[in-house]
Specification:
Helix content: 40-55%
Radius of gyration: 19 Å
Shape: globular
Number of strands: 8
Distance between the termini: 27 Å
Length: about 290
């Protein structure tokens, strides 16, 4: 299970002028001889709601290189799972008060039918932020599709050269930079507001890709309550690290880059960073 797949889309502190536009962008200018493309995706969606828009498939056909955020092979997922689990000897029971631990355990039993013994042995060892997003996955009650994996498979069928923008260790580092105290707050907040979050995610899932970046961001405000530490560590710093890699790809070959939609928006989002470097970005309408 790709647990980090559930850690998608956090809002930024201030939204830029890109907020109401498309999830798919063409990139030109600043010395580029061929057009490249940038796509913001949901990390996962229900199997019956999943689709690859025809505009995305068409633009991928124009490219030679395809890139996603991070590795998705077996070793990478093993390392990532280690990052989102507590170290040996620690668990939710050591991070939460006895009363809050009971609250979480009872919620999982009532909401998802997970018995106490199963929660204690399997779920309590997952770090709180990951557990809060896992709740959304469990609420679907169906199989899911991960956009990065499905698009990677499509790119390989088209015989594109494929890359990842970072190693899984870097993503794990970003997760662990968010203090457990703040993660606990995110978990308890999600439980207290779960019905609202569930309804909003269902709407977002059904309306993607027409849903605006701003509306996607607003959904993700719920778990972390716009915590600046997580915004900086998980999005802003990684965006800055990806930028020179993306530029190099685009200068060498027409490239199709896909990342979580949260990485596009904001004062330090990829759309703003690329524009500031002199590239011309134009939205491409995407339909079902």
């Amino acid at each position: 299970m790709k647990i980090l797949g559930f850690l998608f889309y956090l809002s930024v502190l201030s939204l830029s002028s890109f907020a109401q536009s498309s999830v798919l962008w063409e990139i030109k200018g600043n010395g580029l001889t061929q057009t490249s493309y940038l796509l913001g995706t949901l990390k996962f969606t229900g199997e019956k709601e999943f689709f690859i828009p025809k505009q995305v498939s068409s633009k991928m056909n124009e490219c030679k290189v395809f890139a996603i955020e991070d590795q998705v092979d077996h070793h990478a997922q093993h390392e990532l799972n280690k990052a989102v689990h507590f170290p040996k000897g620690e668990s939710l029971s050591t991070a939460l008060s006895a009363g809050d631990y009971k609250k979480v355990q009872v919620f999982f039993e009532k909401e998802f039918g997970i018995k106490k013994s199963t929660f204690d042995s399997k779920y309590s060892i997952i770090k709180p932020l990951t557990l809060s997003i896992l709740m959304t996955r469990l609420s679907l009650g169906e199989k899911v599709k991960f956009y990065d994996i499905e698009l990677l498979l499509a790119a390989k069928k088209k015989k594109l050269t494929t890359y990842s923008l970072e190693s899984i260790d870097r993503e794990a580092q970003a997760i662990n930079a968010y203090p457990i105290y703040n993660q606990v707050k995110a978990l308890l907040h999600s439980i207290d507001n779960f019905e609202k979050q569930k309804a909003e995610f269902k709407k977002m899932m059904e309306q993607y890709p027409q849903e605006s970046l701003e509306e996607i961001f607003q959904y993700t405000l719920h778990p972390v309550e716009n915590n600046p530490i997580f915004v900086e560590e998980f999005y802003y710093k990684r965006n800055a690290e990806w930028l020179p890699k993306i530029e190099k790809m685009m200068k060498e070959n027409p490239s199709f880059i896909t990342v979580g939609a949260s990485h596009l928006e904001g004062e330090k989002g990829l759309l703003k960073l690329l524009t500031d470097k002199g590239y011309i970005l134009n939205p491409i309408p995407v339909t079902k």
